[in-house]
Amino acid sequence: MSQRQIAECVGRSQPEVARLLRFQPVSARGRAVARKRQEILRIAREAGFDRIRIFGSVARGDDGPDSDVDLLVTPPAGASLLDLARLERSLSDILGERVEVVPDSGLRSSLHDDALAEAIAL
């Protein structure tokens, strides 16, 4: 089955399917994200956040002992820093790892393209 056919079946775009197929967690941290994916999505969406994507060292598979889990999100209109902090705390508790939640509108332009290029939808 092609990526395009998979995308049509699951209601996603072909590029998103390609990114999903690329995420092959190699570390314990990456495997934890994969195992807890549905719970991460549920909690984020209940808080109004959308387009939850992993990026950074865990997405690339080169995370080390001091790495955190970087998540790129689209926040709801009017979301505050407190809303982001609450989501970070909830997801950190679920994963047992430090999580950094980054609003996609809040990336410095120098990081924006790199983060989006390696971001993988959960």
Write the layout of secondary structure elements.
Elements (H helix, E strand, L loop, with lengths): L2 H8 L3 H9 L5 H8 L1 H10 L3 E6 L1 H4 L8 E6 L6 H15 L3 E5 L5 H10 L1 E2 L1
Parallel strand pairs: 2-3
Antiparallel strand pairs: 1-2, 1-4
**Radius of gyration over C-alpha positions, nearest whole angstrom:** 14 Å
Strand content: 15-25%
Full CATH superfamily name: Beta Polymerase, domain 2
Shape, please? globular
Q: How would you sum up this structure in a few lines?
A:
The protein has helices at residues 3-10, 14-22, 28-35, 37-46, 57-60, 81-95, 109-118; strands at residues 50-55, 69-74, 99-103, 120-121. By secondary structure, it is of the alpha+beta class. Helix 6 links the parallel strand 2 and strand 3 (99-103).
Protein model, in words:
By secondary structure, the chain is of the alpha+beta class. It has one domain: Beta Polymerase, domain 2. The protein has a four-stranded mixed sheet with strand order 3-2-1-4, sandwiched between helices. The chain starts with a helix and ends with a strand. The model has no long low-confidence stretch (mean pLDDT 87).
Descriptors:
alpha+beta; single chain; Beta Polymerase, domain 2; 122 residues; 4 strands; 4-stranded mixed β-sheet
